Amino acid sequence: MPSLSVFGAQWGDEGKGKLIDLLAQDADCVVRYQGGANAGHTVVVGGEKYVLHLVPSGILHPGKLNVVGGGVALDPAKLLEEIEGLRARGVAVDGQNLRVSANAHVIFEHHRLIDQCAERWRGEGRIGTTGRGIGPCYADKAARTGLRLCDLLDPALGKTRLRAALAEKNALLVQVHKEAPLDLESQLDRYSALAESLRPHVADTGKEIRAAYARGKRILFEGAQGAMLDIDAGTYPFVTSSNTGPNGIAAGAGFPPRQLDRIVGIAKAYCTRVGEGPFPSEQKNPIGDRIRVAGNEYGATTGRPRRCGWFDAVAVRYALETAGADSWIMTNLDVLTGFDEIRAAVRYRKDGVETRDWPAHASSVESYEPVFESKPGWTEDITGVRRYEDLPAAARAYVEWIEREVAAPIGMLSVGPDRAQVISRGLEPW
Ligand code: IMP
User: Fold this and answer.
1) Does the beta carbon of 82 sit less than 6 angstroms from any atom of ligand 1?
2) Helices and strands (H and E) in the chain: how many
3) What's 3-100+203-262's CATH class?
4) Residues with Cβ < 8 Å from 294, sequence gap 6 or more?
5) Minimal CA–CA distance to 111: which of 187, 32, 13, 194?
6) pLDDT > 90? residue 48
7) Which of 274, 298, 308 for mutating ligand 1's site (highest number of atoms within 8 Å of CB)?
8) Mean pLDDT in residue range 234-261
């Protein structure tokens, strides 16, 4: 299949980095189309750990075209830092293998400050954002007051637009948030210099991706965060500010939706969430703690401990259905090794009535309680297993049970952080 969307089907941190890295081996072009440095994709190659925030995972494979699309909220300092970090470790990054859309909206200092201040004002309703300025940047994009990379590369235009933006943001920072104002000239100098450093990478990336597809090249669209954090389909307002699944690709990468050939979700064998918001299958108890330790469930971007719970078949079924996923990949199955009993939420209940459907109104999710069922666990180490039939019978029974509950085929399983630790079930994503 020439074009493939791979996206998170839970609340992010599904282990997409590793799978995308694996699938990137067979791609010609790897594209980020939404989110920003709030994402943290961890990839382990030959025992070396890389955490990528903005640069697509294809960068770790020589000869791939890596694209940061126009739908990404771009922190230029973070991107340059990441490029330098990769170069320092011997990874080649240049204007040919990393292309950045001229239309990507830039995250400025004021976005980061406002992100953090806004959380204080939300009080009980705080979202638990990553504090990276993502929401305020997208808000300005929608308000038509944002600056794109191409605006900064035109000094006169950049100054006019930043002056207008800062006039409003400084009033907000000073009068509402009681912060110090930002200086136009120094901000302009700083961000213009950052944009200039990125100039060798700046391109009409949508055109390049469409041309590559027309030449029969394989395009991998790498989703960040997860479907349940999608601004439209997720647990609003406890979501990120972009469309995280295949729904974000057309706008965020400039790629025609009709040309998306295959869609594959990624979900862990259990469930985690960072930040606030509904999480029906959460285990705020020793089980959740045990999953956190076994799965090393601490944020790749912020280091925050993740909230942990059992697999939620209602949420994942909804995520895969809304995305139109062809299949999905179950990750971190090895983390469940050693539990006597493994549970999963298979229905929700409200006022004595059970449903298999995700609630239509995101705000009402917390009024439902999960209905759990369980299967026996296994004790064997499965991290070295490479063939499905070599998994313990109890692990296979768990996988097949979840597959039935979610009503979508599991094409692959992941049993450890390394590229090699995967089990194919004969349904390859490409
Ligand atoms: P923001 O994207 O920083 O605005 O944060 C909004 C919500 O999305 C918060 O609950 C974050 O914890 C969550 N979030 C953002 N990026 C990620 C991610 O990569 N993994 C998991 N959660 C994320």
Assistant:
1) no
2) 12, 20
3) alpha beta
4) 335, 336, 337, 338
5) 187
6) no
7) 274
8) 97
Is pLDDT of 428 > 90? Answer: no
Same fold flag, 3-100+203-262 and 105-198: no
CA distance 182 to 116: 15
Is the pLDDT at 302 greater than 80? The verdict is no
| The predicted structure's pLDDT at residue 45 | 78
Catalytic residue flag (residue 111): no
- CATH architecture assignment, domain 266-424: Alpha-Beta Complex (3.90)
Q: Which of 21, 41, 140, 312 is catalytic?
A: 41
Per-residue pLDDT tens digits for 335-352: 999 999 999 999 999 999
Q: What is the mean pLDDT of residues 12-34?
A: 94
Q: pTM above the 0.70 mark?
A: yes
In the structure, what pLDDT confidence band is assigned to residue 419 with cuts at 50, 70 and 90?
confident
Could you tell me if the CB of 275 is within 6 A of ligand 1?
Answer: yes
Question: Among candidates 336, 330, 337, 279, which has minimal Cα distance to 308?
Answer: 279
- Residues found in the chain: 430
Nearest CA to ligand 1 atom 21: 12
**How do the domains of the chain map onto residue ranges?**
3-100+203-262, 105-198, 266-424
CATH class held by domain 105-198: mainly alpha
Residue 52 Cβ < 6 Å to ligand 1: no
Q: For ligand 1, atom 20, which residue shows the shortest CA distance?
A: 12
Judge if the beta carbon of residue 12 lies within 6 A of ligand 1: yes
Ligand 1 centroid distance, CA of 268 (Å): 17
Better pLDDT: 312 or 301: 312
| Residue minimizing CA distance to atom 8 of ligand 1 | 240
Report residue 90 as tokens: 């011997």
